[in-house]
Specification:
seven-stranded antiparallel β-sheet, 2 helices, 18% helix, 148 residues, globular, Thiol Ester Dehydrase, Chain A, 7 strands
Length: 148
């Protein structure tokens, strides 16, 4: 059976905080394999007043960051490290495609799966679905680096 990770646990796993914490929960966690990040996009998101006035659309780079945060939860839990001991850094993206806009009121589901893990670098494949419609797809990588 897969594990659901509630918001309170996300806060113990990720070092991100408002306004940059971009996932509310996660489900279908399978250690070392995959996770699905969840985010309810509200009209109160701090980026909507400027992107775009009168036509609010979630910036694509923030959708990629939300996917990366889901991947970071997977890494922290898989490696059994805490954010006070190591920080997961986003390393890069490939094959990014923006398919559909994300607007206030939409529910995001972000399935992320590990495609490779070597020398502490995890490679992922992920997608963002907004109310069931694919909005973004990308490949990305991240690495956990010990804190000073």
């Amino acid at each position: 059976m897969s594990e659901r990770i509630e918001h309170q646990e996300i806060l113990t796993i990720l070092p991100h905080r408002y306004p940059f914490l971009l996932i509310d929960a996660a489900e279908d966690y399978k250690p070392g394999e995959s996770i699905v990040g969840i985010k309810a996009v509200t009209a109160n998101e701090p980026f909507f007043p400027g992107h775009f006035p009168g036509n609010p659309v979630m910036p694509g780079v923030l959708m990629i960051e939300a996917m990366a945060q889901a991947g970071a939860v997977l890494m922290y839990k898989t490696l059994d490290v805490r954010p006070d001991a190591a920080t997961v850094f986003f390393m890069g993206t490939d094959k990014v495609r923006f398919r559909s806009p994300v607007r206030p009121g939409m529910m995001l589901r972000m399935p992320v799966s590990v495609t490779a893990a070597r020398h502490g670098v995890f490679k992922f494949k992920g997608e963002v679905y907004a109310d069931g419609v694919r909005a973004v797809q990308a490949e990305f990588s991240a690495k956990a680096v010990e804190n000073l």
